[in-house]
Amino acid sequence: MLGVIKFVKNWDSIIYNVVNEEKKMVDVKGKWAFITGANRGIGLRIAKFMASKGCNLILHSRSLEHTTSVLEEVKAMGVEAIHVACELSDPNEVRKMIDEVNASGKPVDILFNDAAVQIAYRKDYYKTPVEDYVTSFYINTIAPMMLCYEFIPKMIERGFGRVINTTSGIRNEPEQAGYSASKAALDKVTADLAGKLDGTDVCINLADPGWCRTDLGGPNAPNDPDSVIPGIVLGAFIDDKISGRWLGAQDFSGMSLEDALEKAKGYKKLFL
Question: How far apart are CA 241 and CA 162, in angstroms?
Answer without folding.
Answer: 10
